[in-house]
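Example 255, ligand S-adenosylmethionine.
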Amino acid sequence: MNAAALLNDIFTSKTVTDSLGQSYPLGSNIDMAEGMFLQQLIEKHQPKHCIEIGFAYGISSLYICSALDNIPGATHTILDPVQNTYWKNIGVANLQRANIGYYSLLEEQSEIALPRLLSEGRRFDFAFIDGNHTLDHTLVDFFYLNRMMEPGGIIVIDDAAMPAINKIIRYLLNYPCYRLLDSVETKAFFKRKLFDNMVTAPFRVLSKLLPAGLKHQIFSGEVIKGNRELGLQTSMVALQKIAPDERAWNWYQPF
Ligand SMILES: C[S@@+](CC[C@H](N)C(=O)[O-])C[C@H]1O[C@@H](n2cnc3c(N)ncnc32)[C@H](O)[C@@H]1O
């Protein structure tokens, strides 16, 4: 069975199955639109060395690997500390079912494994962050991935609408060496979008009339979320590294 057929089965049945044939409800996964977003980014940019943080039932991995399948010599490194225990090895079972054998799974917390990969001299040109979603964990993940990434590389961050992740993304968008490459929306945030359109959008328009410093002083980050093309409904963003990271030791931009 190929990855696309397996994904179709999983999304139709809304279940996943362990290696003994026991089924469990599908959960914690990216949705189809997000999966296609990852797959198309890989098809377009042809990265060779990918890394993913947060394996769970392997849904994002199936999308990533179905695109990597067509790139000769591609590698995929996956980090998740509890694949065998909490996730009952179902991510691994799914990759086996899809005949994907070129990945390596590190059952470790990303904050422990990433510094080691850096010290081993590993380099990546595509990364997907979907692990522990606290502000500090996500920023630590990005910090090490950035150190292992050449200009041209892409870092995709999931759950961009979560307040902690949204805040980090707005901080990262100030880095001179990154640009917002693309983003995808989720249907799950329809109510928030409505609220945003009705209530916060007028304030945002007003805020555009103010000088940047004053705007930042008056409005919390929540109100100016819609800047830089990132709305509340944005669920996943791709940042592309466009230059070496040469920020000075005291670099800071309000965000
Ligand atoms: C939202 S789920 C990932 C879903 C997956 N990307 C998919 O689409 O099926 C988050 C995952 O992050 C893992 N995780 C939690 N803390 C982590 C950490 N410190 N390092 C790496 N992975 C972590 C969890 O075990 C869980 O599998």
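Summary: The pocket of S-adenosylmethionine is lined by residues 28-30, 53-60, 79-82, 87, 109-111, 130-132, 137 (CB under 6 Å).
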